[in-house]
Amino acid sequence: MAPAPGEAAQRALTATEQAVLDAVDLDRVVDLASRLIGAGGENPGDTEAATVAVLEAAARELGLDIATQSAAPDRPNISITLLPADPAAAAPGLMFLGHSDVVPAGPGWSRQPFQAAVDNGRLYGRGATDMKGGLAAVLGAMAALKRSGAALSGPVTLVCTVDEEDLGLGIRTLAASPLPHDYLGCVVAEPTDLETVVGCRGDSYLELEVTGRPAHSGRPADGRNAIAAAARICELIRADHERLQRDQDDLLGAGTWNVGLIEGGQGTSVVAPSCSLSLDRRLMPDDDPERILADLLARIREAGIDTDGISVAGRVSMQMPGFRTPADHPLVAAAVASVESAGGSTRIGGWTAACDGGFIVRDFGVPAIVLGPGGLNDQAHQADESVGLEELAIAARAYALLCLRTLNHHATPSP
Predict the structure, then answer these.
(1) In angstroms, how far is CA 29 from the centroid of its own chain?
(2) Tens of pLDDT, residues 351-379
(3) Adjacency order of strands within the sheet including 202-211
């Protein structure tokens, strides 16, 4: 990761910026994050309706505009917008993106995962980092902008989708319809330890069905063993994975393959008539999973696997595009400067993980970054998940400053 550019170092705050920072209320941010944690939303196993209800109630209390969009029964996306003083004359705004679901709590907790608790400067609970804390920080920033009466040239919108932790039903529903406003940029509030992430790999799931012919195991030549064919396919995938690792991108690394699930056979004494493989293929920003699947099926044919009684079919069951925003983009510079001015530190880097921001870039042409409180690798999806209170405060302040610096060009420096 590259250090933050020197020109993004902390600068003097304007009077408007200082007023907004003074309006950020950490106690309210922590209270909202705690209520969001208590709402659950384990995925799979539950719906996000209770979490969305908490967000909606908080937005109504602030007098913000609210719109919901059903992705499935009891699984609504929600958009919360702070409109400028004259909505009819509004310029493009700034979007924040998050998700309302969490991974299942799982074992190993020393406390109740859905009873939020503050201990030694940290907020504990499932979703504290990924990403109820980030959602609360965004609303905390919007509340500060609203209370301070800051003049904004365009809207500030928090879009919160369902099903991010599984198949992305919410972001796909969002991407199938127009955005509520025009936007200059999108900030995905996923946990980055407040690093400014300008690029993410994407992800895709590829499903292969290998069909053979059953026979008695005493005469295996009479059948065609689908498991044996699948083993040869796994070797092709391993070789392609190694090929990909020889071409590393400085920011994002390389695409990867992983055989996550394999299931097949009818019985020990039967030549396996079928076998299924579930593959995870991490994507570089320009990768097309349909093209990757087609190339894999072609290599299977070239290797002579898909022949002589063996057939192989495939489909892409999930895809999440990657993205890359130039490090010198104005959104990046403003984000770095805002974190510094909010009392934090940041670096510009990339993610080998995937997030919903790729859909915003690909389907709407809106540049995106990822910037949020909490640790992806040491807290997200872990037992005893937590986020630092000071990190929540810095995030809320940084988001508020980023809105001002992106949507307000007329503030004057304080004396």
Answers:
(1) 21
(2) 988 899 999 999 999 999 999 999 988 99
(3) 256-264, 274-283, 202-211, 311-320
Q: Which residues pair with 388 in a beta bridge?
A: 122
Q: Please list the helix, strand and coil fractions of the chain in percent, rounded to the nearest 5, in that order.
A: 35, 25, 40
Alpha-carbon dihedral of residues 310, 315, 320, 324, nearest 10 degrees? 60
Tell me which DSSP letter residue 68 carries.
Answer: E
Which ranges of 177-288 does DSSP label H, i.e. alpha helix?
A: 226-245
3-state secondary structure (DSSP) of residue 168: coil
Cα dihedral across residues 99, 105, 108, 114: positive or negative: positive
* Rounded distance between C-alpha atoms, residue 3 and residue 6, angstroms: 9
Q: How far apart are CA 197 and CA 189, in angstroms?
A: 11
Beta bridge mates, 347: 3
pLDDT digits (tens, 9 = 90+) for 234-285: 999 999 999 999 999 999 999 999 999 999 999 999 999 999 999 999 999 9
Nearest alpha carbon to residue 281 among 253, 262, 256: 256
Which DSSP category does 42 fall into?
Answer: B
Strand partners of residue 9:
none
Beta-sheet pairing, 368-370 with 117-119: unpaired
